[in-house]
Amino acid sequence: MTAADERRGDGRVPNVGALVVDLRRDRVGEVMASTGGRLSLRPPSGGREWEAFPCDVRSMTASDELRAKVTEANDRSRRERGTA
Predict the structure, then answer these.
(1) What is the pLDDT of residue 1?
(2) What are phi and psi of 30, to 5 degrees?
(3) Of the residues 5, 44, 60, 62, which has the fewest C-beta atoms closer than 10 A?
(4) Do residues 54 and 18 lie in contact, with contact meaning Cβ atoms separated by under 8 Å?
(5) Tell me, what DSSP letter sits at residue 74?
(6) Which of 51, 56, 55, 47 is nearest to 23 (CA)?
(7) 16: containing domain
(8) What ranges does the record give for the region Disordered, renumbered to this chain (predicted)?
């Protein structure tokens, strides 16, 4: 993978269930479906789906995974305290 691929994704269509980074939105998403050249993504912890093109996503790195887990823990903590 080249540096350009890392920035914009490599255009390969990931499998349903794969965790990816949407580079345009800087969000982690789980691939829910692939239809008509677009991916349906959803936050790993649930929530509203959004669409992205395969060229705008890339596979998650270990750093991305850690960031997603910290974000999820922070969100859960805010909900439990009622400050969300």
Answers:
(1) 39
(2) -95, 130
(3) 62
(4) no
(5) H
(6) 56
(7) 3-81
(8) 64-84
How many structural domains are present in the chain?
Answer: 1
3-state class of 6 per DSSP?
helix
Q: Which has the closest alpha carbon to 39: 20, 67, 25?
A: 20
How far lies 46's CA from each of 32, 38, 67, 75, in Å?
A: 11, 19, 16, 12
pTM tops 0.85, yes or no: no
Give the E-state strand segments of the chain in sequence order.
Answer: 19-22, 27-35, 38-42, 50-52, 57-59
Tens of pLDDT along 18-35? 999 999 999 999 999 999
Q: How many CA atoms lie within 13 A of 15 on its CB side?
A: 2
